[in-house]
Amino acid sequence: THETTMKTILTTAILAAAALGCSTGVRLDPALERTAFTTDHLDVAATGIDGDAARRIARHAEELWGLYSGELETAPSRALLVLVQGHGDGFYLPGRTARIVVPIESDSNVLRHELAHHFAVALIGPQADWINEGIAEYLEQIRTIEGRTYVSGLAPHHLERALRGERGGHGHAHVDYS
User: Fold this and answer.
1) What share of the chain is helix, strand, coil (3-state, %, to 5)?
2) Mind listing the pLDDT tens digit for each residue in 71-104?
3) Quick one: three-class SS letters along 146-167?
4) H or E stretch including 133?
5) In angstroms, rounded to a whole number, what is the distance separating the alpha carbons of residues 174 and 130?
6) What is the pTM of this model?
7) Which of 15, 110, 144, 158 has a CA that sits 20 to 30 A from residue 137's CA?
8) Termini Cα distance of the chain
9) Euclidean distance between CA atoms 9 and 135, whole angstroms
10) Could you give the count of Cα atoms lying within 13 Å of 165 in the half-sphere of its Cβ?
11) pLDDT tens column, 33-73
């Protein structure tokens, strides 16, 4: 019927728009993508990064991989963990080979957040940025305490900013996503 055809077209358009929202125009310098070593689930690129620091971060990423895959009951494909020099936020580039880019100076929340993007895409599929960011904001708060897994759901510093009425900043509006 005409009504069914229109619903199908509308649904397809909405899904296509959501998928476009997940794409990014960011490109990495190919030199940064050279694999230095591999782990069970990650190829690790660490050009110009101290080897001990790179292996420490990769071990932590593997621990998080195990935690996320166990709690979310999903097994995403291998990803390329790109470790870079510099302060600031990491980012996630979906694709045939997903890239999880993390500055080595960042705290472990950044690694948890960027890895959460990879698991969200594996679990749900492509999503609009606001959904994917919200899921990553939520999952970055996952912790294991005395053998039990907890997710507080909202970063304390984001809650404080939201309660003060501040809007998000630094590229992605993390406070707004939270």
Assistant:
1) 50, 15, 35
2) 889 999 999 999 998 766 889 999 889 999 999 9
3) CCEEEECCCCHHHHHHHHCCCC
4) helix 129-139
5) 10
6) 0.73
7) 15
8) 42
9) 28
10) 0
11) 888 999 999 999 998 899 999 999 999 999 999 999 998 89
Report the C-alpha gap between 98 and 118 in whole angstroms.
Answer: 7
What is the spatial distance between Cα 148 and Cα 153, in angstroms, rounded to a whole number? 16
Residue showing tokens 């990803």: 79
Residue with tokens 């694999």: 35
Residues 176 and 132 sit within 8 Å (Cβ to Cβ): no
Residue 38 structure tokens: 């591999």
Determine which helix (DSSP H) or strand (DSSP E) holds 98, and give its type and residue range: strand 98-103
Count of helix runs (H) and strand runs (E) in the chain: 6, 7
The pairing of beta strand 35-38 with beta strand 91-93: unpaired
